[in-house]
C-alpha cells in the first residue's frame, strides 16, 4: 500500500500572480524514484497536495538528498512553513483522490480521555465506512494514522459532489448521527472538501 504525503501550505504572492510557477515542482517530483502520483488543489490562499510514495523510505531518501528542500522548487510558490503528514491508509487511495470531490478530515485524539483511542476510532470508522461505501459510487472510504504524530488520523473519501456527501449523511441520519457524535466526543476534527487535479 503506498504512503500518502498530505501537505498544506500558504501560497505566495508570486504564485497568485502566475500559477504556472508550480509546474517545475510537478516536473521534478514525478521523476523522483518512488513517487507514484501527485495530486493537488490550488486555492487563492492555500495549496493542498497529496504525493503518493511507494514507501516512506523513498520520500526520506529525497529528504536526505543534498540541496533538499530547495531542489524541489517550492520556494517561489509558498510562504512560511508547510504542514506535512505521511499516512498509510487501510485501503487503496486512488478512488478517493480521483473522485470529482475529495473529503479530507484531520482528527486529533482528545487528551485525557480513556475512551479516546485508536481502536475506538477505528471501530467507529469500520461501521460508518461500510454505511458510506454502500451508498457511494466512489468507495471506499479510507483512513489511517499520521507517521509524525500517533494522536493524529486522517479520513479520506471521494464523492460525486459536496451535495452527494450531504445527501448520504442526511438520508440516513438516524444511523450516521450517533457515529458522528461518537467521533466528536473523542477527537477534534477539521474537515475540508477539495477538487484535486493530477499532475501530468
**CATH architecture of the largest domain, please?**
2-Layer Sandwich
List low-confidence stretches: none
Provide mean pLDDT, rounded. 93
Number of domains: 2
> Biggest sheet, in brief?
5 strands, antiparallel
Question: DSSP strand (E) fraction?
Answer: 25-35%
State the name of the first-level CATH class of the largest domain.
Answer: Alpha Beta
As laid out across the biggest beta sheet, the strand order is 4-1-3-2-9
* End-to-end CA span: 22 Å
Tally of separate helices: 7
| Number of strand elements | 9
The third-level CATH topology of the largest domain is Alpha-Beta Plaits
Percent range of helical residues: 25-40%
Provide the fold topology:
Layout: E1 3-11, H1 13-17, H2 23-29, E2 35-42, E3 46-53, H3 56-63, E4 78-88, H4 94-98, E5 101-109, H5 118-135, E6 142-145, E7 152-159, H6 162-171, H7 173-186, E8 187-194, E9 197-198
Helix pairs in contact: 5-7, 6-7
Task: Explain briefly what this protein structure is.
It comes from Psilocybe cyanescens. The protein is α+β, with helices and mostly antiparallel strands.
Describe the protein's architecture and organization.
The protein is an alpha+beta fold and 200 residues long. It has two domains: 86 residues, 2-Layer Sandwich (Alpha-Beta Plaits); 101 residues, 2-Layer Sandwich (Alpha-Beta Plaits). A hairpin with a 3-residue loop joins strand 2 and strand 3. Helix 5 packs antiparallel against helix 7 and helix 6 packs across helix 7. It is globular. This is ABM domain-containing protein.
Amino acid at each position: 500500500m503506498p504512503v500518502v504525503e498530505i501537505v498544506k501550505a500558504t501560497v505566495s504572492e508570486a504564485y497568485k500572480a502566475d500559477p504556472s510557477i508550480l509546474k517545475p515542482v510537478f516536473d521534478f517530483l514525478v521523476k523522483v524514484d518512488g513517487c507514484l502520483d501527485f495530486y493537488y488543489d490550488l486555492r487563492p490562499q492555500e495549496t493542498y497536495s497529496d504525493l503518493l510514495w511507494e514507501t516512506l523510505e523513498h520520500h526520506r531518501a529525497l529528504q536526505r538528498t543534498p540541496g533538499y528542500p530547495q531542489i524541489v522548487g517550492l520556494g517561489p510558490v509558498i510562504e512560511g512553513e508547510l504542514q506535512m503528514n505521511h499516512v498509510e491508509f487501510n485501503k487503496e487511495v486512488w478512488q478517493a483522490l480521483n473522485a470529482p470531490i475529495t473529503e479530507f478530515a484531520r482528527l486529533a485524539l482528545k487528551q485525557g480521555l480513556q475512551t479516546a483511542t485508536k481502536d475506538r476510532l477505528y471501530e467507529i470508522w469500520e461501521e460508518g465506512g461500510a454505511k458510506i461505501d454502500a451508498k457511494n459510487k466512489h468507495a471506499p472510504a479510507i483512513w489511517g494514522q499520521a507517521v509524525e504524530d500517533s494522536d493524529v488520523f486522517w479520513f479520506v473519501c471521494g464523492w460525486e459532489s459536496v451535495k452527494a456527501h450531504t445527501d448520504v449523511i442526511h438520508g440516513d441520519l438516524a444511523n450516521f448521527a450517533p457515529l458522528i457524535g461518537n467521533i466528536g466526543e473523542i477527537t477534534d476534527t477539521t474537515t475540508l472538501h477539495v477538487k484535486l487535479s493530477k499532475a501530468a
